[in-house]
What we know:
Elements: H1 8-27, E1 31-35, E2 40-41, E3 52-56, E4 69-70, E5 75-79, H2 85-99, E6 103-108, E7 113-121, E8 126-133, E9 138-140, E10 147-149
Parallel strand pairs: 2-4, 5-6
Antiparallel strand pairs: 1-3, 3-5, 6-7, 7-8, 9-10
Amino acid sequence: MFYFVKGWQHQRAIVGILRDVGLHIEAAGEAIGIPGPIVVVMPHCDPVQPDYLLIRTERTSIISVDGFVHGVPDLIAEVLSPNNPELDTVTERAAYARAGVPEYWIVRPASRDVLVCSEPDASFSDFMNVRLFGSDSELVSPTLPARVAVADLFEPPSTPAS
């Protein structure tokens, strides 16, 4: 039986977020990071399983004993899947804005950049502030104490040996 796997570039981008963003914020005591899959139940949104999320330390009570997150994380990051990009860029983006997610990252391994969405507007089902951070720039979070060189989130452009 074949199971759908998102691929090494997708998984390595999640590792980059964890290593270069999440662990630094955790070490500072600001928030905890959780790589997916984890079920997140938010208002005005079907349950989702983001690739990565951060929850501020003072809000960790939204992590339930059932292993789910029942509430709105402070950051959700999705690594764009080439098989279904509309899910991250349209469907989930609208759902996360309706739920009031303060910051949503769309991490794009193919173009080696990150689209950062903030200031959710539930009535428009979108974010009012959207900024693209290219591979040669430093991503500065608009809502969290996070800074990272975008290139550090991705593996080098070469592919692994066959």
